[in-house]
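Class, study these two lines:
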Amino acid sequence: QLQLVESGGGLVQPGGSLRLSCAASGFTLNDYAIGWFRQAPDKEREGVSCISSNDGTTYYADSVKGRFTISRDRAKNTVYLQMNSLKPEDTAAYYCAAQRRHGSGCTRTARPYDYWGQGAQVTVSS
C-alpha cells in the first residue's frame, strides 16, 4: 500500500519550533512534487509550502515565508517542514501530499495531489 506517514506535530509555545516529517512507504518521492497544507477550524485549506520533484523549486505562502523551510532527504525518502518562530495563528492540522510530476515547479492547490498523509496537529499556545 502506498502511504505517506506524518510525524512531529505537538504543542509548542509561541516563538518555538517544530519539525514535521512526511515519510513515503511503497514508492519513491524522487518522482513526486510534495506539498504541505493546513486546515484550521472555521478556515479554508491553505497551501503552506511545496517542493518540486527534481529542480529544487520551492514555494511558501506569504503567511509563513521567512519562518518555515521545506526540504527533501532522498536517502530517507522523507520530506520535512521546519517551522520556526511559531505563532498562535499557525495552529492547524497539517497534511503532506505527493503529486507525480516531472519538471520544474510544484502545485500550490490541493486537487492535483495523488497521495495524502494522515495529518499532524500543530498547536501553538501559551
Q: What stands out?
A: The first strand starts at residue 3 and ends at 7. The mean pLDDT is 95. The radius of gyration is 14 Å.
